[in-house]
Structures are given as structure tokens and as C-alpha cells.
């Protein structure tokens, strides 16, 4: 699905670097979303509503 299956024939370690970039970008997107929700007050508001 992500194109990083198995070892790279052309450049050893290239698939590992690609997967690391994908994971890093995903984590950073999640952190950015969390910080935006905290800054806007949505996180606390929804937490108090649902608990």
C-alpha cells in the first residue's frame, strides 16, 4: 500500500527511510491536530461534554 514492501533493489535502506518519513509525517500531523484542538479549547470542551 505504501510502496515500502521488502528490501530496495537499487539502494539498501531506502524503504526504511521512506517508512520512517511516513511514520514521522503521520505523528507530526497528529501532534499538530492535538495542539490546534488545545489552542482552540475544543479538546477540553468535548472531553467535559462526553465524560
From TrEMBL:
Q: Which keywords does this Swiss-Prot/TrEMBL entry list?
A: Membrane, Transmembrane, Transmembrane helix
InterPro entries assigned: HMG_CoA_Rdtase, HMG_CoA_Rdtase_cat_sf, HMG_CoA_Rdtase_CS, HMG_CoA_Rdtase_sub-bd_dom_sf
Pathway, according to UniProt? Answer: Metabolic intermediate biosynthesis; (R)-mevalonate biosynthesis; (R)-mevalonate from acetyl-CoA: step 3/3
Domain of life the protein comes from: Eukaryota
What Gene3D superfamilies does UniProt report for this protein, alphabetically?
A: 3-hydroxy-3-methylglutaryl-coenzyme A Reductase, Chain A, domain 2
A single Gene Ontology MF term assigned here is:
hydroxymethylglutaryl-CoA reductase (NADPH) activity
Q: What is its EC number?
A: 1.1.1.34
Q: Which residues cross the membrane?
A: 20-44
Give the protein name, as stated in the record: hydroxymethylglutaryl-CoA reductase (NADPH)
The beginning of the lineage is: Eukaryota, Metazoa, Chordata, Craniata, Vertebrata
Amino acid at each position: 500500500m505504501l510502496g515500502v514492501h521488502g528490501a530496495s533493489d537499487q539502494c539498501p535502506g531506502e524503504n526504511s527511510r521512506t517508512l520512517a518519513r511516513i511514520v514521522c509525517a503521520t505523528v507530526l500531523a497528529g501532534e499538530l491536530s492535538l495542539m490546534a484542538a488545545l489552542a482552540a479549547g475544543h479538546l477540553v470542551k468535548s472531553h467535559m461534554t462526553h465524560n
